[in-house]
Amino acid sequence: MISQRMPKLLAAGAIALGAGSMGAAPQPFTPQAIGDAPARSLPAPPADGVMGFVVSDFVQPIVEGKDACPDGPVPKLREAYIASLPAAERERLTRKENEAELLRAWQMTAFGKNGTNICSQPEMFDRPTFRTVQSKVAWGLDLDEGNATDTCAHDTFTTPNGQTGIDNQEYRALGCKLEWRTKDGVGGDNQIGMKQFHNSGEWTQVILLRGVDSLENDPSVEVVYANTPDRPMIDAKGNYLPGITYSISTKPPRERNVLKGRIVGGVLMTDPGDIKLTQTWGQGGARDIRGNRARWDYRKARLRLEFQPDGSLKGMMAGYRPVADPIISPALGGAGSALVAGIDCAGELATLRKYADGLKDPKTGKCNGISATQRISAVPAYINDINQRRASR
Amino acid sequence: MRRPKTLLALSLAASAFAFGVWTVSADAGAPQKPTPLATAPLTAANGQIVAMRRLSESQYRSAITDIFGPDITVAGRFEPVVRPVGELIASGSSDAAISPAGLEQFDAMARVIAAQTFNEAHRSQFSDCTPADASAADVACASRILAPLGRYLFRRPLTTEEQAFYVKLAGSGAGPTKSFYKGIELALAAMLTSPNFLYIIETAEPDPANPGELRLDNYSRATRLAMTLWNTTPNDMLLDAAAAGSLTDQAKLESIANRMTQSPRMEAGVRAFFADMLKFEKFDEMAKDPVIYPYFNQDVLKALPEQMLRTISDHLLTRNGDYRDLFTTRRTFMTRALGGIYQVRVPVSDGWVPYEFSPADDRAGLLGQAGFLALYSHSGRSSPTLRGRAIRELMMCQPVPNPPGNVNFTAVQDTENKAMPTARIRLSAHNSDPVCAACHKITDPPGLSLEKFDGIGKYRAAENGAQIDINGALGSAKFSGGAGLGQAMNASGATTQCVASRALEYTTGRVVSDEALVQSTEKAFAAKGYGIRSLFFQVMTSPQNWRVPKSAPVGATRVSLNR
Amino acid sequence: MLVIKPGNSGTPWETDVNGTRLAVGLAILGFAQAVSAQPADLPIAPARTDQFPNGFKVIRAKDGQVYATKDGHTLYGMDMRTLIAFGPDPALYCRDECTKVWEPMLAPPGSKPNIAFPRGFGSPPPPAGQAPRPAAAPAASNSDLNPDGLYNTQRAPDWTLIQGASGPQWVYKSWHLVFTRKGDKPGSTAHDGADNLTWNTLKFVPPVPKLTAPQSVAAAYRDGAYILTHKDGRALFTGICRKDCTDWSPLTAPAAGRGLGEWTVSRSGDTPQWLYRGKPVYVGAALDTPAPIPANGKVLRP
Prior knowledge:
The complex is a heterotrimer of chains A (393), B (563) and C (302).
Chain A: H1 32-35, E1 51-59, H2 77-84, H3 87-93, H4 99-108, H5 169-174, H6 189-199, E2 205-210, E3 218-227, E4 245-247, E5 256-264, E6 267-270, E7 273-278, E8 295-307, E9 313-322, H7 328-333, H8 335-341, H9 345-355, E10 358-360, E11 367-380, E12 382-384, H10 386-392
Parallel strand pairs in A: 4-12
Antiparallel strand pairs in A: 1-2, 1-11, 2-3, 3-5, 5-6, 6-8, 7-8, 8-9, 9-11, 10-11
Helix pairs in contact in A: 2-4
Chain B: E1 7-13, E2 19-25, E3 48-54, H1 57-68, H2 89-92, H3 100-117, H4 139-154, H5 160-177, H6 180-192, H7 195-198, E4 199-206, E5 214-216, H8 218-229, H9 236-243, H10 250-262, H11 266-277, H12 298-318, E6 331-334, H13 336-342, E7 353-356, H14 370-375, H15 384-395, H16 410-413, H17 423-430, H18 434-448, E8 462-463, E9 466-467, E10 471-474, E11 477-480, H19 481-491, H20 493-508, H21 515-527, H22 532-541, H23 543-546, E12 558-562
Antiparallel strand pairs in B: 1-2, 2-12, 3-4, 4-5, 6-7, 8-9, 10-11
Helix pairs in contact in B: 3-6, 4-5, 4-6, 5-6, 8-9, 10-22, 11-12, 15-18, 17-18, 20-21, 20-22, 21-22
Chain C: E1 13-14, H1 19-22, E2 52-53, E3 56-61, E4 64-69, E5 76-79, H2 97-101, E6 102-104, E7 159-164, E8 167-172, E9 176-181, H3 194-197, E10 199-201, E11 217-222, E12 225-230, E13 234-238, E14 249-250, E15 263-266, E16 273-276, E17 279-280, E18 282-286, E19 298-299
Antiparallel strand pairs in C: 1-2, 3-4, 5-9, 5-10, 6-9, 7-8, 8-9, 11-12, 13-18, 13-19, 14-18, 15-16, 16-17
Organism (chain C): Novosphingobium aquae
Region (Disordered) (chain C): 113-150
Protein name (chain C): Lipoprotein
């Protein structure tokens, strides 16, 4: 069923924000962090209307709690194999003395004919789809705004602070994975790992706003959302330091997205457009082919960013990812991803396909994209854009 | 005042199979032990030794790069030369011994340099002969290789005895290793641990203009010119000029000094001079509390002295600027790391770019740069006193006594005390003790004008929420803030006199107590618009500065190398 | 039967490389910006030798030199690494629809494959109760061959043979299965980068010249030819500076150096300086900057 509703925006200032973004990190993710309208008393923008930011947080947000995945997290290959056995066989194989047999048996599920494996050739394996998020609450944006022409049937979520019509099928499909959510229902390795990657400078992102006349309301703002090869500068507590310069360059990682946006009630929202970002891999980078592993490709994507009184930004990016993108990294990892990390790439791809809701191929009627959301925080920074740098030389 | 004369006792592991001990004494009649078995003449090749100064680390590195090329790496730890109180390290080098541990380091560095120089990739560059048998000694070829190297390393031609000694050493090495080049390596390593290389040995000759007195001889002049003006070993031009006796010819000396002060290589000399004058060795031990100063990191630390040196070099050399304007210029250079401290946009990700502060930044000259402000602060707080003392001592050559041992610092250290939110208030409380107040009256008034810059030199509008009073004074001059301080420094005659006396001290390796000499040097400096090139030209060409003070000759130096 | 063995420098190799003579007369100044739009695994590295199979040659195409057939059809490499999802052996990818548009460059009749797409970490575990099959003795780290007698992909020569869908087929640089595009005009490179950079023209970059030069000197390929550079990436140049010489930093030589090949040491200046073929050598800015050398400087070529 295709949703047909408009988002309900909370009245500005209905929920007071907590402290600014510069407290001790990492902070547990709370609904207030990205969902609220900003507190009042926003500062005036600079006279030239140019504002720069460095992104300090970029991760798939989850709504914590056990109700999202009442049956527990998605089992890994080993656990999935054990669960598939008749009770007696399950009891026998999980005995200590049969450990070697169990190991071989579940690992065999990662291999197919002629040397194929479940991660390098996921399309050649027929695996069951994953357990998915059962709750109705998720972060994200209403991407289709009721436009059914190029989407496929899907359910929607409501945000923790009450916005409805939220499209985030990636969360629905993968939000019960252990990497997303531990068995206790709190953030998993994704939350920590993404932060570490970000802090290491492997994929620093910057946001440059031009033509900002007011942080409260401005009908036209240019937004440059780009990568920079410059490392972030971080204090001893992991906070990004404001006032550092970052240069958007032609060297990898080099993505530079130019978007149009407007500010309403202290919230900057961009028009739908394609957003590509890239990640520079350090360890393991040699396995990457054509930069695919490092790709963050969001179609018909939007930024929703809220100006904070301390000068920072908090918000989200949401859009449709090509449906196989979330498994590129384990696919390049090949059999090792399955044997070492227990990743069921074929099951994951099948689940993503099942819940794909966007980028519909008009010929086949099949959706090749899945709605997805990243949480974003950003602190003030000096940004050198490509043209500015050339001009200054 | 003369200091105790040099006494060195160096243990030298000259090779895996030859262990040598040599002792050097500048004191005539000093005990010589053990009894020499084989003797290599240390020096006195050209006359009487009148001074010995240890090479600085940067001079050592420059010499190796100049002689053997930039791809020969120098790896090791250098024993620091101790700075005498109130003086330059250049003066300390005149008294610097080398400890056994320090010599071990020099020995290890020498072996690494020698091994690189004569490895397969490099040896052909440093030999113009091929040994008759690469697995055996070859006296003729060894001589052809070692004699030119000795000339560069000892900064004069080897004596016949020295050459014979090193050739023999190469032969001794070639035998057991069955390698001609291993023998050459051994001889080169021995040269590199010789006091003739590690020390600038100044020798003198009778001064025809002043009968009965001495003047530095030609090779000593070549070395002094090179080390002072370019911070490196003399090149062929200087060694050839010394061989021709040109450096005791006033007209030729002036011509060479003029060429050298106009050369791009002068930058290295000016950097080394100011790094010494401004005590940049203190950056090596600078530490800041990362919780209080999150913007301070290793990249910033590395950039702080470099920013000051770039400013100095740009102003004094590139722009031929007036030395006094070093205290007022707003021009400097910036890196991305420093951009955080200054909270400015930097147009490049890597490297340095020119930058000019705006008048509103209140950063004037060297004293407004984070390097100075951070160096003369504590790890967790700024210090008007340390800044003021540095201004007085380093920039104006006005010594400030150390505080007495029993001072109670509680008031100034208590930065959390809400009743005393600013450094000025805390110092005021501290100075209720008249013993303290006497010195603080000298140091604090200039230092307090910089209080809007915190302990790493970052701007702050307030301290503990309290407004900061940046009124200051320097002698009779009253002013506000960093720009006012810069103007007062610019107008103070003490700064130019100070740098003139430091230039004399830096060149000669001893504090110049002759006030008339300082004044005449300063006068010549003033006459040329306070240009740094003209100051050093004056110092290097004044005949008086080549004369050996009557107290200087240090008697016969004996050297023995026991094997 | 023809088997290409390591080190075989006779037939079917050809030593006449027109390309090495094409690389002259191009722009001296204003080096093209480094190609940064390519992922890390492109562009293809310089050729290891100036020898390549009979039947191929080097031609000048729109964006530089490329390998081509004798009749001038550009050679394309199908990058097997991008096709792993197709199956464990992407060398077998091109059949049916693919062969309608791409013509495989098959090996001479009777040739045997001497390289294979690596299987990597992909073997299923051994049956229960059996010890893992002992791994074949690993190839010596400096060996060009794997224990199976096939080339190690990291150390293979430029041109090898792989079992493709249509038989033994040429491979360039271990990964690029060689094809031409059916129906293309000679010299066309229209399909370069097709299918998300799976198909790429085989660009010819001549072998890096062996230099007898100071350690600080390297060579870089710019505008169709090699030039001499500082090994840190800065340009080297020569010329005569008459004024404003701050950008003319001498390439410093060791004072004690006696020279090397065509390089000699000048000691007449303040700094010992390298001369190349008798001309003073200076160091400019990084090659990827807009003006790596002064206007009246001249680049140096090996």
